[in-house]
Structure to design on (510 residues):
DNA sequence: CGACTATTTGACGCCAGTCAACACCGGTGG
DNA sequence: CCACCGGTGTTGACTGGCGTCAAATAGTCG
């Protein structure tokens, strides 16, 4: 998949990528059939983007927001000396820049960690939702609040957890999020990213991540190999990471 | 100010705390008089809370959101060993838990760093705004997106900036935010918090913060003393911290 | 095969943490 | 008036977790 492909046709209702995005919302509140229809019809087109390419560059004026249908992406920012920090890891079903709807420009880049498939949602459609579908609008708002909660937990991780717990925490969080999207097995999930990506997400170096992954493997907690995570000891991992999923707000209630 | 005081009277229109919150929104978009009125009237009551007390505890079910009218507060979380991480520093005019409106419970605590005055806004009033004032609702949504942007920048800071730049960055950011709220002088602003608080915000220890503050002072960049920050060399600070205020989205445009 | 990227491992260095002692300061009470 | 006290700030000596540098190995794609 070397270059971007544009498909101008409207989304079929049963696209599995869109289904994952709906699953994410349905896990937090009840959507009416009407709301689901509006959500699906807000999508203008889909594209495919190859791994390691930028999806959105910081600072450009935006007219669409992007829903990640397949693959892995991230929000990141670089410092002058080339140091990169991944601010959030995105899985299929995540809106990678819904906040661009109101911020108008992003203060960070969005990049594809794997080959990805995305959907473009015009800001006009989002604005119409805020004016005609207040409940659906609240759920979209909620979805940006969920990103913020995930980012807050990352602050705690990087600021106060040691390197081992930091990595374990990222693995735990991603496991639950993949489960919600219907993309995880009972004890495993695909994670086709590099150790350098994990390092950039955790504020560490790739060398140290390698050592800590080895320790997690040697201690029988988990294995990360060939783009797949296998959980050997969930309770052990949760305990090590002090992982408390409350911040993922995985409860269905009126919002 | 030893205990909480409840004032049941409705806010006067010209309360300076509310004015700061409006200034924050006006810096990003134009509000109609009608919208300003609805914003002001959404406030049910005000309270005063003493320094070092909790304002909101993680996990409790919320029926109101809290606007900080005066003083300094923070969002924070603790780990089992007692390590604390401040996830966001709040200044007067900030909504400290507007996200609680849709999350229903907070995944973190909110604490008063100084004596504070707060306003309570019922979630019912916020819901009504989403149903009757879509533009004002978008501005409230925007205000939560701004918090998220600030938190993302904190991730970059803690993950990739060294301790000196990390502290300098926090000082720069807070300076601009205080300016927007009308609370900063040309080269100084009040910051009545401890070095331990700065350490908890930056993912450092109080001892190391002390050393770095000394260095910033010795290098003629800034002074933090007796609850006040004095900027000696703004350009130098900005350069050291690689501070780029883009993420504060300080541009007035239709949202 | 050859070029390239990602992973792995070892040796060594440094930034920030830890531990400890002391200074300072406002408040409190004898 | 001063002794006391807890919270905060300051400084020095030492430690250690993670980074840096370097090199070998493994995996992948044309």
């Amino acid at each position: 998949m070397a270059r971007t492909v544009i498909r101008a046709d409207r989304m079929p209702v049963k696209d599995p990528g869109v289904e994952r995005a709906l699953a994410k919302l349905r896990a937090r509140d009840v959507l009416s059939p009407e709301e689901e229809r509006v959500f699906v019809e807000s999508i203008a087109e889909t594209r495919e983007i190859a791994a390691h390419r930028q999806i959105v560059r910081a600072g450009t004026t935006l007219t669409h927001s992007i829903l990640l249908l397949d693959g892995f992406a991230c929000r990141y920012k670089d410092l002058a000396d080339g140091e990169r920090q991944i601010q959030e890891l995105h899985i299929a079903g995540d809106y990678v820049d819904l906040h661009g709807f109101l911020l108008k420009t992003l203060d960070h880049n969005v990049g594809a960690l794997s080959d990805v498939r995305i959907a473009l949602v015009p800001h006009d459609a989002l604005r119409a939702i805020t004016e005609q579908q207040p409940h659906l609008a609240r759920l979209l708002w909620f979805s940006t609040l969920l990103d913020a909660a995930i980012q807050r937990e990352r602050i705690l991780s990087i600021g106060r957890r040691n390197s081992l717990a930091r990595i374990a925490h990222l693995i735990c969080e991603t496991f639950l999020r993949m489960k919600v999207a219907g993309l995880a097995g009972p004890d495993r999930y695909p994670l086709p990213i590099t150790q350098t990506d994990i390092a950039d997400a955790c504020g560490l170096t790739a060398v140290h991540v390698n050592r800590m992954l080895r320790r997690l493997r040697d201690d029988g907690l988990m294995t990360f190999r060939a783009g797949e995570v296998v959980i050997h000891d969930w309770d052990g991992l949760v305990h090590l990471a002090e992982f408390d999923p409350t911040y993922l707000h995985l409860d269905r209630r009126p919002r």
The CA atoms of residues 21 and 93 of chain A lie 4 Å apart. Chain A has a mean pLDDT of 95.
